[in-house]
Amino acid sequence: MTAPALSGTQAAILAAYAELIEELGSDDVSYRVIARRAGIAERTVFRNYPTRVDLLLATAAWIEATLFAREESASIFDIPLAIRDAMERYDARPELAHVVAETAMRGVSGASPSPGREQLERLLNAEVPSLDAEQRRAIIAALSHLDSVGTWVTFRREFGMDRRDIADAAAWAAEAVLDGIRDRVAPQRDA
Amino acid sequence: MEEPVDTATAILASAAVLLRERTFDDVSYRALADEVGISERTIYRQYPTRAHLLAALSNWIEQTCLPLPPFVTVSDFRAAVHERFRAFDASPAYAYVGARASAISPTIDTEPAFITRAIEAMLDVEAPMLNRRDRRRVAASLRYFSSAMFWARLRTSFDLDAGEICDAFDHAVDTVLARLPDATWAKP
Prior knowledge:
The complex is a heterodimer of chains A (191) and B (188). Chain A folds into two domains: 8-65, Homeodomain-like (Arc Repressor Mutant, subunit A), CATH 1.10.10.60; 76-184. In chain A, 65% of the residues lie in helices and 0% in strands. Chain A is built from ten helices and no strands. In chain B, helix 2 (29-36) crosses helix 3 (40-46), helix 7 packs across helix 8 and helix 8 packs antiparallel against helix 10 (162-177). In chain B, 38% of the residues are buried. Chain B folds into two domains: 1-48, Homeodomain-like (Arc Repressor Mutant, subunit A), CATH 1.10.10; 64-184. Chain B is 65% helix and 0% strand. Classes of the chains: A mainly alpha (191), B mainly alpha (188).
């Protein structure tokens, strides 16, 4: 995942807003409070993020790229481990996890529900090149879905799972998706 | 003639109407008040924050416009979810509201959705020998792949239509259920 290029001012605004979301919730944070926390003028916040939706989209992307950033997996078969780690990270920052999850589900341009998709496609194409287009799409879709904060939100809310159970169940489901392609792996030259 | 509905419901019905022409973010309390013919303050009294409004609106839409077909067996479950995804395609604005509402930090004591309980009940009948942990893993996976979030993600980032989303859903259900040993399934 590539972090969007931000100016120092923008990074300060997004960091301040994320901090305030954790303290106050996402509903009650005014531009004035964000500006004060970031140590800049309110109009500077407006100039960079004219609407609340702009601000939320940028903040969610920043959180994904920084606080929830993960190490690149070397293999598609490492993805369940990455998912397990990601769930633990979401669990440590529940307010931010909800904001990222909700922002991804807005259905507006700029929301990116599957930021890790390109990496998954690259790994799958390299390791299991023999899949047809539909199989490939089904696997990428399922793994993208599991490798997202929506998993943490849903497992917690609908099943009352704790951190350990969420990490376990999410990784288990990802292993299930990979079961279908374990016998299709192409020989790796530099293995 | 039906009885006039209460204020809280009238607000939700009007919000659903406004969703046909704008996104939830653009449904302001001001516009909503004008639409219902009440004061903005009355709306704030019912729904103190937009998160409250979103949660209530999603529940109302789900009950009124997108009811889940009942299911007992796995094949009924698949059919019910297919029907739902097709209904989402027909009313994307409603489906996005559902996906968003299921992602927010709960505003009230939220009960698990009906579909969660229905999936658990289905597994009790269809796979009675399943151990507790596996049953929870399976239920959680099936629940998440049948969600409005799955539909929204596949539509937004993969640009898929309902038919393709149903195929991806079936594939995911297959892979999850394939993990269960034959002996855990009920014999017909």
